[in-house]
Design goal:
Chain lengths: ~350, ~270
Amino acid sequence: MNGESSVRLSGVEKRFGDLVAVRSVDLDIAAGEFFSVIGPSGCGKTTTLRLIAGFERPTQGMIEIAGREVTGLPPYRRPVNTVFQSYALFPHLDVFENVAFGLREARVRRAELRRRVAEAISLAQLDGRERAKPRQLSGGQQQRVALARALVNRPEVLLLDEPLGALDLKLRKEMQVQLKDLQREVGVTFVYVTHDQEEAFSMSDRVAVMDHGLLEQVGRPEDVYRRPATPFVASFVGLANRLAGRLVGAAPGERYEVDLDHLGRRSAHGPPGLAAGAAVTVVVRPEDLRLAPATGPQGGPAAATVIDVAFLGAHRMVRLDAGALGQLVAIGQGQSTVVPDDKVVLSWADDDAWVVAAAAQP
Amino acid sequence: MSLRRHPVAGALALVVVGFLWIPILAVAVNSINQSSLMVSWGGATVHWYSLALHDPNVRTGLTTTIEIALGSTLVSLVIAVSGALWWRRAPARARAVYDAMVYARIILPEVVFATALFFLFLKARFPLGILAIIVGHSVWNSAYAAVIIQARLVGLDPAIEEAAADLGATPWRAFRRVTFAALLPAIIAGGLLTFTFSFDDVVTSYFLGGNSATPLPLVLFGMIRFRITPEINAIGVMVMLFTVTLMGVAVAASTLVGSVGRGRRDALAEFYGQ
């Protein structure tokens, strides 16, 4: 990433008693970036956000915001603002006063305060609702008040903790677009926490995937999807067909030669540094899996039977029983001709296969 | 709600309303009745009011009552608010103990507390009087206030204090502008309730008043032991009006506090100032 650093975590660890919520996280988020942290619940993503906001102090490590160390600073001395999952609007104050709260704390002069609050309120499309109490607003409106209340302070970084979690699907999709537009408009660094990888992918410049307090991978959405660093990332991010095998060695063109169980030798791309002989998983995304009608004798290694076909609008998703390989999934427009119980032969281009080290089995 | 469609319920409701209101009406009517026997109408008068207002026993009784009610309300609110704030972050087991103590103070008979405190004060050589009554009233009043304030606190999102800190408020500012401000309607309601309860208490005051403190209810109690005079009716009406006015003020205050924040007043002042 070019540009100056907005948030930097160095070796940050957070323990709650025996529980390690976040372990040795190093992260560098650039100014103006839309950065998402995704992972299953309990993976440490919300704790990471709370560490940046200052609600939690790290057990170890250092946090910098806009080039200044803030590790020991309380939340009210940090140039960040948060949009809470529950919105946490002040129930006794109206929309105007909720939005004005931070500016009053900062002793902003009256004329400027009024101007900036009005600006934030119209940015959040809440004109005319200035005197409404939070409980008189819809969920979507409350969400926008929370956003305006945070952004009006012009923070270096805006932290968002599952801000769309309480909204229904349609409103969620609309707000995703609005949030992205807003971020482009105000140019503030967004750190966005969600368990919804699709949501993160559609909005973010970069994504961090966390599991068990560890950063599994950081990268552009496409990289994370096409080139997952670990089997966890491969399965958490989108649908993945995982084929077990053993690494034979490096092949020309930055590839590896892999001996796949039941399928034999194939080549696949992969991250550098995999050792020959290691147990690996080859990931083939559903849209890369091709189906052809089985013409020859039954029982070939890549033969499969169609279990069912689900209509997804633009695509169809085909669930397959591939015998010893287990259940596989294919998605695409060309799959529309198959029906349940059809016998098919599977194939994929070597360029679309990605190899990761298999998860260590306990 | 038609009396014709539900004749039994309707009749019952009428009886209940009758029992509630007819005595009150009788008190009000007799307070301006010239006939001191209170059995027939002898023409209107304000004599009994003037008598009551000039009765030195009634006057000192009223002052004593108000002193006690104010003192007990203040003590109860401080106990209830600080208790509620502790309760919010306390471990579940400690909370259960605290809750049990609150409910015990509401459920256990007042005479039990009053007797117990009487003996305690005697042993400790703590003088009976206004201070002793304030302590006695606060025993149960703080429990009522605690219930009301906790009910409001439970409805508050615990994240609002973090939100205030996030927006630049120091812990003290966050407490004042957010927690305390959001609790204010409940604090007003709780204060009003405790004031009223203290105002008309007989049992605790009787045990702990000694010779030095005789609040208004005890004055009235003493008066009817000798003879029933319309003066008592006049006092009853005045106390009633006072309580209703207090209620009205409290309701108005809590709506005002609810809808108008500090900033709104600022905004208005700004608007009219320009």
